[in-house]
Design a protein that fits this description.
The protein is built from five helices and two strands. The protein is mostly helical. Strand 1 (about 60), helix 4 and strand 2 (about 90-95) form a beta-alpha-beta unit.
Length: about 110
C-alpha cells in the first residue's frame, strides 16, 4: 500500500493491480527514480534501525522489489549508511532463494 501511495503522489494515478506498480517502477523516467529513491530511503531507515538493535552480520532482503536489480540494492545500501548512527557495516544482500515465503509457510505444516 505504501508504494501505491507514492505512485499516486508522483504519478497522479491510482494503480489497482501489482503489475501496474511494477510497470511504473521499471520505467526509465524521473518520476520512477523519485519513487525508488523514496522507497530506498524508507527501507534504509528500517534497516539502520534493525542493525542498531540486533547487530547482524548480514541483512537479507527478499520480495518483489528484488526485481528492480542491483542498482536499487545499491540505493538501499547507501540510504542505510546515511541513517546509521552506530559504527556498523553489515552486508545487505538480496536473497538467493526465489520464493522464501513458500519455504517459511511450508514449515508451518507437519
Amino acid at each position: 500500500k505504501a508504494i501505491k501511495k507514492l505512485i499516486k503522489k508522483y504519478c497522479k494515478i491510482n494503480p489497482e493491480y501489482n503489475y501496474q506498480v511494477i510497470n511504473i517502477l521499471n520505467e526509465k523516467s524521473k518520476r520512477s527514480e523519485k519513487i525508488k529513491d523514496e522507497i530506498a530511503d524508507y527501507i534504509g531507515m528500517g534497516i539502520a534501525s534493525f542493525i542498531s538493535v540486533f547487530d547482524p552480520e548480514v541483512v537479507v532482503l527478499a520480495g518483489g522489489l528484488r526485481n528492480l536489480g542491483d542498482s536499487f540494492l545499491n540505493k538501499i545500501k547507501s540510504r542505510t549508511k546515511k541513517h546509521m548512527f552506530l559504527p556498523r557495516n553489515p552486508k545487505v544482500v538480496w536473497s538467493k532463494i526465489k520464493h522464501p515465503n513458500l519455504i517459511g509457510a511450508s514449515l508451518l505444516f507437519d
